[in-house]
Amino acid sequence: MTEQASTAKRILTGTKIGVVVSDKRDKTCTVAVDFQQKHAKYGKYLHRQAKFQVHDPENLCGEGDRVEITGCRPISKTKSWRLVKVLEKAPAPLEHKEEATA
Hints:
The protein is extended. The protein has 1 helix and 5 strands; from the N terminus they run αβββββ. The protein has one domain (about 15-90): CATH 2.40.50.140. It has one helix spanning about 1-5; strands at about 15-20, 30-40, 45-55, 65-70, 80-90. Strands 1-2-3-5-4 form a 5-stranded mixed beta barrel. β1 (about 15-20) and β2 form a beta hairpin. The chain is mainly β. Helix content is about 5%, strand content about 45%.
C-alpha cells in the first residue's frame, strides 16, 4: 500500500493561475491573479487583483508568462507561494530593424 502511495502523483489543491508582472529578483517573481468578487449589497461583480511573491528557484519565469502557483510553507517574510509550472510563455517583443542606408 505504501508503494502505491509514494508513486501516485500528489494532487495540488489551492492552485492559482496568474500572469508574471515582475521577474527582476533572483529566485522570486511577482504574479498577479485576477478574480471577480460579488459586492455584498448591490450584487454587482467587481474585478479585483491580488499579487503574490512566488518562489522560482530556477528563474524559469519571464515577465508576461502565464503560470500556475500553489501555497507552501513561508520561505521569507512575503514569500509563501511556489511555482508549479509555466503554462504559456509570453510572446517575444518585436525588434526594430534598422534599415541599411546605401
